[in-house]
What we know:
6 helices, 44% helix, alpha+beta, single chain, three-stranded antiparallel β-sheet
Amino acid sequence: MRRMTETAPAEPLEPAPTPAPGAEQYLALDLANSAPALPGGHTLDLLSSPADANRWLAERGLAPADAGLREMCAAQLRSLREQIRALIASRVEGQPAPAGAVAAVNEAMTKAPATALLHWDATRGLHRAAAHPTTQILEHALAALAADAADLLTGPDADRLTACGSPPCTRYLLRHGRRQWCSTRCGDRVRAARAYARRTGREPQG
């Protein structure tokens, strides 16, 4: 079940936002945005459970729908999300990339074996075998997402990365022209805040 958290009095929940610009091109950006902040202090985590994580990967062609992910697998996916977010944030803010995040992404890229490896045991002797199927599925998915993040952060689109300019949104996007928000909903919120500021003479928040 997708988990909602709240830090403020309950308000009617908005549906999950549509993918931010660039998220369909870069699955790593989609992963980074998979726990969007919603108005009212709510957060929607699309990877909150093994079933949700499995669904997210399956919808993007990174795992079969019946992969049977466990909580440890979902936790690894959430961890990679945070490392990729840290790298994107440092790029957007013009700060040095966190060493731990770089190491985590590199580890994910190199961890998945390209083929069945050589093993030995007393019963079968030398033989080739894949890792545990579910583990191998996850490792290949993490490797693909990590490589996609590396491509995004080192390619020409890296200069277009920006944070959504509509609080409380925490999503990232690829900027098109002067657009600084990730969705029509966030753009409407920005315009409403500016209109309110003009009427009241107050500076808009964020």
